TrEMBL record:
Database matches in InterPro entries: Beta_galactosidase_Trimer (IPR013738), Class_I_gatase-like (IPR029062), GH (IPR017853), Glyco_hydro_42 (IPR003476), Glyco_hydro_42_N (IPR013529), Glyco_hydro_b (IPR013780)
Domain (Beta-galactosidase trimerisation): residue spans on this chain: 411-621
Keywords carried by this UniProt record: Glycosidase, Hydrolase
The protein, known as: Beta-galactosidase
Residues covered by the Glycoside hydrolase family 42 N-terminal domain: 25-397
Catalytic activity as recorded in UniProt: Hydrolysis of terminal non-reducing beta-D-galactose residues in beta-D-galactosides
GO biological process: carbohydrate metabolic process
GO molecular function (one): beta-galactosidase activity
Active-site residues, Swiss-Prot/TrEMBL: 161 (proton donor), 320 (nucleophile)
Family per record: Belongs to the glycosyl hydrolase 42 family.
Entry-linked PANTHER family: BETA-GALACTOSIDASE GANA
Top-level taxon of origin: Bacteria
Binding site for substrate: 122, 160, 328
Length: 695
C-alpha cells in the first residue's frame, strides 16, 4: 500500500502570517492586457490573495512545438506578486494544442466503439499514450525551469480535473496498459480468470494477450462484471500514474513548491478513486458545484465532509466552486441571495483553508461564457461582486481570529463511502437499476442532520472504526479484511448501522454465499434469501409500508430469519400476495459488547430520519437536547492549545430551512451572514444564513 505523502501547505508570500487563501481561476490570456490592471484593483478590493494561472494555456505558452512564450505569463505574475497576490501555477497540460494533435492524432482517446475523440473541446488525450506523456512532461520541465525561483508561485496545479472527460479510453495503448496492470495485480492469468469468473460464458483466458478493454459488445449485452470493475480501477490508476509523472517532473526541479491537483468529489462524483489519489498529493484540493433544489446544502456539506475524510482531517483547498449559476446543466439555476457566502462557509467549516471560485472574470466568449464568475458580465456594479467582497472581508476576519490550521472536530458518527462499491453497483445486470451505492450515504447524512447530528463522511479505507457510531450504507463490496474490521468494531462495543446492499460481494464482486448480507450476516443477526425490487410496471410491487409509518421504495431484503439476539423494530405491512407481510424491515442485534442495526430497505432521507429515534433508543444512543433540532447544521473546528493559551474553537451554525431559525451563540459572534446576534446569547438565522462564533 502506498504511503501517504507528507502534508505540505502553500506558504504565504514573503513569510506573512498564514491566512485563508481566497481567489479563483484567472485566465488573463482571454483578455487584452489593458484589463489586467483593473482585475488586480478589483482583486485587492475583494480581498483576493491567490489565483490559479495557466490551466488551459498550453497553446499560449507553447504556440509552436518547442517554441515557448512566457512573456505574457511573466508580466501578469509580476503584477500579481507586487499586489500581494500569490499564484497557484498550473502545469498547463490539461488540453493539448492543435499543432500537437495534428502531428500526433494517436494521442487522442477512443471510445468503446473505437471512434476517436477529436479536438474541439478539452481533455482529448489518452493517459496511456507514450507520445503524449513525452510532450506533457517536456512542458512541465520547461514550466518548472522557468519559474523555479519565482517568489509568487506558492503551489503547482498539476493538469486539471483528471478523468472529467477522458476517464475511459479503449485504444490500443490502453489495451497494452490494461494487460500490464492485470499482470502486476494478479501475477498469472489463472488468478485473473478466478477474479473475473471467466468460466461463465466461456470467457476463460490462457494468456495476458487475450485481455482486452471492455469494448463495445452489442446493445443489450452484459459485460463481465469483474472485468468491468477492474477496468474502472485501472482507469483510475492510469490517470494517477500520469499525474505522478507530471508531479515528479515538476518536483525534481522545484522540490520546495507543494503540488496538488483538483479532485471532483461530490455525492455522485465517482470518476476516480479519490481516496486512493489522496495519498499522492501534498495537499488535497477539490472542485464542487452545487446540486439545485432541496439537496443543495446537505449535498454540499456531505461532499465537503468526504473531502475532509480523504484529506484525513488535514487542511484542504477548495479549488473551484461557483458564485452563482454554472453553464453545463440543461437548466442552470442561479444561487439564491446569501448562498454565495453560505456555501463558501460550509466548505470552510468542513476543513477547507482555501476558498476559490471558477472563475475570476466571467468569460465573454467560449463554451463557459454563461458560467458565473467573481466579476460577472455586469461588472463591479453587481450583487455578485459585492457578495464576493463581503465574503473576502469575512474570510479576513476569520483569518485574524486564528481559523487557519484548525481542523474539523471528529463527529460522534461516521458515514462510510466506498468508490469500488459505487463502481460495482453501476453494472447493468443487478437486481434493480434504480439502486446505486452513492445515494444511501447522502440520505444518511441528511437523516442524521434532521436529528441534529452532523456526521463525518469517511472513506472505507479511513479510520471509521474510531467513532462511537458507524453507518455502512449500501457498501456493496466488503472483502475479508473489511468484514473483519466490522466484526472487531462491533464486538468491542461499537454501534453499527448497516443497510440493504451491504456486504453482498467481496472485493472481486464474488457474492458471499449463505444468504445476504453474507460478509457480516452474523454481526447484524439477519439472513435474507432474496431481493424484492419495486417498480412502476403494471401490477408489480411499487412500495412497501412499514409498521413504523415509513415507506420503502426501490428495493427490500426478503429476511427469512433473525438471530435470537436480534430485536425487530419494524416489519412490512403488505397484502399477502406480495409475500412480504410481517417480514422484518428494521432490526437491532447484540454482537459481543456492541450493537448492530440493520435497515433492510430503501427508506430515503425522510424515512430514515423518522426511523432513527427508535434505533437510537434500542442501541442506547443518547442525543443531547441541543442536538435535537434538525433546522441547524452545527459544525465545529478546533485548534490545539499550547499549554498557556486555550485552543481556539469555532462553531459554525447553518440554517437548513427556508424559514428563520433560533440559535444559541457559543462564545462571541465573529461572522454573521443573514443572521442577527441579539446580544443575549441567542441569534436568529435567516434562510441561507450562517453565524460563526468563537469561544
Amino acid at each position: 500500500m502506498t504511503a501517504r505523502r507528507t502534508h505540505r501547505w502553500p506558504r504565504p508570500l514573503d513569510n506573512a502570517a498564514r491566512r485563508i487563501w481566497y481567489g479563483g481561476d484567472y485566465n488573463p490570456e482571454q483578455w487584452p492586457e489593458s484589463v489586467w490592471d483593473e482585475d488586480i484593483e478589483l482583486m485587492n478590493q475583494a480581498g483576493v490573495n491567490i489565483v490559479s494561472l495557466g490551466i488551459f494555456a498550453w497553446s499560449a505558452i507553447e504556440p509552436e512545438e518547442g517554441v515557448y512564450d512566457f512573456g505574457w505569463l511573466d508580466r501578469i505574475i509580476d503584477k500579481l506578486y507586487h499586489a500581494g497576490i500569490a499564484v497557484d501555477l498550473a502545469s498547463a497540460t490539461a488540453s493539448p494544442p492543435l499543432w500537437l494533435t495534428q502531428k500526433h492524432p494517436e494521442v487522442l482517446w477512443k471510445d468503446e466503439r473505437g471512434d476517436a475523440c477529436w479536438p474541439g473541446a478539452r481533455q482529448h488525450w489518452r493517459p496511456t499514450s507514450p507520445i503524449f506523456r513525452e510532450y506533457a512532461l517536456r512542458l512541465c520541465r520547461a514550466m518548472a525551469q522557468h519559474y523555479r525561483d519565482n517568489p509568487a508561485v506558492v503551489a503547482w496545479h498539476v493538469s486539471n480535473e483528471y478523468g472529467c472527460h477522458n476517464r475511459f479510453d479503449y485504444s490500443d495503448d490502453a489495451l497494452r496498459a490494461f494487460q500490464r496492470w492485470c499482470k502486476e495485480r494478479y501475477g498469472d492469468i489463472e488468478a485473473v480468470n478466478d477474479a473475473w469468473g471467466t468460466y461463465f460464458w466461456s470467457q476463460r483466458m490462457t494468456d495476458f494477450s487475450q485481455i482486452i478493454p471492455p469494448r463495445y459488445i452489442g446493445e443489450g449485452n452484459f459485460m463481465n462484471p469483474g472485468k468491468l470493475l477492474d477496468f474502472k480501477r485501472f482507469c483510475s490508476d492510469a490517470l494517477k500514474e500520469f499525474f505522478k509523472a507530471e508531479r515528479d517532473a515538476l518536483a525534481e526541479i522545484t522540490p520546495n513548491i507543494p503540488l496538488t491537483t483538483n479532485f471532483m468529489v461530490s455525492a455522485p462524483g465517482n470518476a476516480l478513486d479519490y481516496d486512493d489519489w489522496g495519498d499522492e498529493v501534498d495537499f488535497v484540493s477539490n472542485d464542487h458545484y452545487f446540486t439545485p433544489g432541496r439537496r443543495h446544502f446537505d449535498e454540499l456539506a456531505y461532499s465537503s465532509s468526504l473531502v475532509d475524510g480523504i484529506s484525513r482531517k488535514q487542511p484542504w483547498f477548495l479549488m473551484e466552486h461557483s458564485t452563482s449559476a454554472v453553464n453545463w446543466r440543461s437548466i442552470n439555476y442561479r444561487k439564491e441571495p446569501g448562498q454565495l457566502e453560505r456555501d463558501a462557509m460550509a466548505h470552510l467549516a468542513m476543513g477547507a483553508d482555501a476558498i476559490c471560485f471558477f472563475q475570476w472574470r466571467q468569460s465573454q466568449a467560449g463554451a463557459e461564457k454563461f458560467h458565473s464568475g467573481m466579476v460577472p458580465h455586469a461588472g463591479r456594479n453587481s450583487q455578485v461582486y459585492r457578495d464576493v467582497c463581503a465574503l473576502g472581508n469575512d474570510l479576513d476576519t476569520l483569518s485574524q481570529a486564528g481559523l487557519p490550521g484548525t481542523t474539523l472536530s471528529q463527529a460522534r458518527i461516521a458515514v462510510v463511502y466506498d468508490y469500488a462499491s459505487e463502481w460495482a453497483t453501476e453494472h447493468t445486470a443487478t437486481p434493480t437499476q434504480q439502486v446505486r451505492h452513492w445515494t444511501e450515504p447522502l440520505d444518511w447524512f441528511t437523516a442524521l442532520a434532521d436529528q441534529g447530528l452532523t456526521a463525518d463522511v469517511v472513506p472505507l479505507a479511513g479510520d471509521w472504526d474510531r467513532y462511537e457510531m458507524v453507518v455502512l450504507p449500501s457498501v456493496y463490496l466488503l472483502g475479508e479484511n473489511d468484514a473483519r474490521r466490522v466484526r472487531d468494531y462491533v464486538a468491542a462495543g461499537g454501534k453499527l448501522f448497516a443497510t440493504y446492499y451491504t456486504g453482498i460481494s467481496d472485493e472481486r464482486d464474488h457474492v458471499w454465499l449463505g444468504g445476504y448480507p453474507g460478509a457480516i450476516r452474523d454481526v447484524v443477526g439477519v439472513r435474507s434469501e432474496e431481493f424484492a425490487p419495486m417498480g412502476d410496471d403494471d401490477g408489480v410491487l411499487d412500495h412497501l409500508d412499514l409498521s413504523n409509518g415509513t415507506v420503502a421504495h426501490d428495493i427490500a431484503d426478503v429476511i427469512t430469519s433473525t438471530a435470537d439476539s436480534a430485536r425487530i423494530l419494524a416489519t412490512y405491512q403488505a397484502d399477502s400476495w406480495t409475500g412480504m407481510n410481517g417480514v422484518p424491515a428494521i432490526t437491532v442485534n447484540t454482537y459481543g459488547e456492541g450493537r448492530a442495526a440493520y435497515v433492510g430497505c430503501r427508506l430515503g432521507a425522510d424515512g430514515l430520519a423518522a426511523s432513527l429515534p427508535a434505533m437510537f433508543e434500542a442501541m442506547d444512543v443518547s442525543v443531547p437536547a441541543w442536538q435535537g433540532s434538525g433546522d441547524i447544521l452545527r459544525v465545529v473546528r478546533e485548534g490545539r492549545g499550547d499549554g498557556e493559551h486555550e485552543a481556539p474553537r469555532f462553531t459554525f451554525q447553518f440554517n437548513r430551512t427556508h424559514h428563520p431559525v433560533a440559535a444559541d451563540i457559543e462564545g462571541r459572534t465573529i461572522v454573521a451572514s443573514l443572521a442577527e446576534d441579539h446580544g443575549d446569547g441567542t441569534a436568529t438565522i435567516a434562510p441561507n444564513g450562517v453565524i460563526v462564533s468563537m469561544g
